[in-house]
Each structure stands twice: as C-alpha cells, then as structure tokens.
Amino acid sequence: MTKDLFKGSILFGPVPAVLVTTIDKEGRPNVFTVGWTGVACSHPPLVTIAVRKERLSHENISATGEFVINLTTREMAKMTDFCGCRSGRKIDKIKHFGIELEAGTDVAVPSLKKSPVALECKVRSVTELGTHDLFIAEIVRNKVEKSLIDKNGTIQLGSAGLLAYCHGEYFSLTRQPLGAFGFSVAGKSARQARHQKKFQQKKLKKS
Ligand SMILES: Cc1cc2nc3c(=O)[nH]c(=O)nc-3n(C[C@H](O)[C@H](O)[C@H](O)COP(=O)(O)O)c2cc1C
Question: For the segment 179-191, what is each residue's pLDDT rounded down to a tens digit?
C-alpha cells in the first residue's frame, strides 16, 4: 500500500456505536449514542466512554456515578443515529422513539429492552482530556438476550447483527466469521490449541 500523510486526528474504526442510558438526580432516564467507547481491563472488567461536558448524559453520569452501555443492532440503527443527533435537554428521546426500558439490576439506571447485551457500569474515575472527559467504569452486571445463548451456554454474540460505526457510516456485522480466536496458530502447538479451545468455550459466569 502507498499512503498519503494527514495531520493527526481520530481516523479510527470500526468502533461500536452504543446507546448509553443514564438517569438524572430525580430518576428521569435519558439515552445517547457513544462511539468513543472501549475495553480498558479484563479483571476487573473496566470499560471507558469519552463524553463531552455539555451533554446531558455527562451531567447525569457525574451526578449518579452510573450508566448502562447497551450494544446496538442493525434494527436499532435509526434510533442510534437519532439519539446521537438530539439532546435530552431539548427532547424526551425515550418517549419520542417509544423506547422500552427495563429496570436496572445492580444499578438504578434502566437498560434498553431492544438491546441484546446491556453492561451495567459504575464509574471508577473521570479524567479531563480536552474536548472529552474519559469515564472509566466497572461492569458490575451483564444482561444477555436469551436467544443468543446456545444449548451449551455459550453466548453467540456474532449472531446479534451488531452495529459498527466507521468514519461517519454505520455497518452491521453479519454471521460470516473469518476465523475464531487463535485460528491462525491452531495446530502449531498443544499449548496454543488448548488456549484456543478454552477461548471458544468461554462462558460468562452466571449469578
Ligand atoms: C455515531 C455517533 C457517535 C457519537 N459518539 C459520541 C461520543 O463518543 N461521545 C460524546 O460525547 N458524544 C458522542 N456523540 C454525540 C452525542 O450522542 C449527542 O451529542 C447527543 O445528542 C447527546 O445527548 P444528550 O445531551 O441527551 O446526552 C455521538 C453521536 C453519534 C451519532
């Protein structure tokens, strides 16, 4: 490949476009779209979201120390775009879209019924970076759509049609994996094969 040079900027993707639910001090829910989200640590399970100070959601998360990351699907693309273009300061997005909520389990914040996976998060720290503040939060509960759990108890997340955002456009994942974790080294050593098998059989602990 032959590359052109550009000034440093966020040319990065694909990223998940997630819907983050929050509540205000009075318990009123809001939902907004986040592309700048990521995994920070496996144990403890830590994730990040980068949020601009002016968002209603920033105010809500700062007030309660909680939020829920709702993974999105192809069917949720319009809702995801809308919730990223309109502020809860001006419009009740939940009413406008007729979004169905379900009560939080380990947090007071509700999750989206339509979302296949909801990650209930408690904030550990906030770092001011510039345009965005980085919230690092611990996932205290995972809620997973039952139809994505196969008879062996394995979560088939690749079948959920998850939504991705790439340089201004939305895409959805199709069930055509290029390989499973470790496929490039499978058969090279017994240790690697064992690791691959362990990963493929990985199950989330139920509680
Ligand atoms: C695809 C997409 C990704 C977005 N990612 C972020 C993000 O990572 N952080 C952020 O602060 N705003 C992000 N936004 C913008 C907010 O979602 C948007 O300003 C929203 O209206 C804020 O809602 P609120 O004021 O109700 O919190 C994104 C918008 C879209 C459409």
Answer: 988 888 877 666 6
